[in-house]
Write a structure and sequence with these properties.
The structure is a single chain. With about 90 residues, the protein is α+β, with helices and mostly antiparallel strands. It has a single domain, classed as Beta-grasp domain (Ubiquitin-like (UB roll), Roll). It is about 20% helix and about 25% strand. The protein is built from 2 helices and 5 strands; from the N terminus they run ββααβββ. The protein has a 5-stranded mixed beta sheet, with helices on one face. It is globular, with a radius of gyration of 12 Å. The termini are far apart.
Length: about 90
C-alpha cells in the first residue's frame, strides 16, 4: 500500500496541482527522491545544498516531526501520511 504525501499549496504547481501524491518508499529520503523523479524541481525546494531538509521546511510522518525521529532515514510504512509544511514567518 502506498504512502500519501500531502503537498503544500506553494509546491502544487510542481505536482500539477495535486494535494495528495502517493509514493512507494521505505524512508522519507526515498519518498523525496521519488517526488523528484516524478516532479522535477521539487527536491531543490525541500533540501539544501548539503542534502538536508531546509530549515524553513517541516516534514512530518503522521504528525511527528522527522527532526525528532530519524530525519530522512525515518521509516515509513503502508498507510502513513507524510506532510510537507513550509514554515511561516510572522512579525
Amino acid at each position: 500500500m502506498p504512502k500519501k504525501v500531502r503537498i503544500p499549496t506553494p509546491l502544487r504547481k510542481l505536482t500539477n496541482n495535486e494535494e495528495l501524491v502517493e509514493v512507494n518508499a521505505a524512508t522519507i529520503g526515498e519518498a523525496i527522491a521519488e517526488l523528484q523523479r516524478r516532479f522535477p524541481g521539487i527536491q531543490e525546494r525541500l533540501l539544501d545544498d548539503t542534502g538536508a531538509v531546509r530549515r524553513f521546511v517541516n516534514v512530518y510522518v503522521n504528525q511527528e516531526d522527522i527532526r525528532f525521529l530519524q530525519n530522512q532515514q525515518t521509516p515509513v510504512k503502508d498507510g502513513d501520511e507524510i506532510s510537507i509544511i513550509p514554515a511561516i514567518a510572522g512579525g
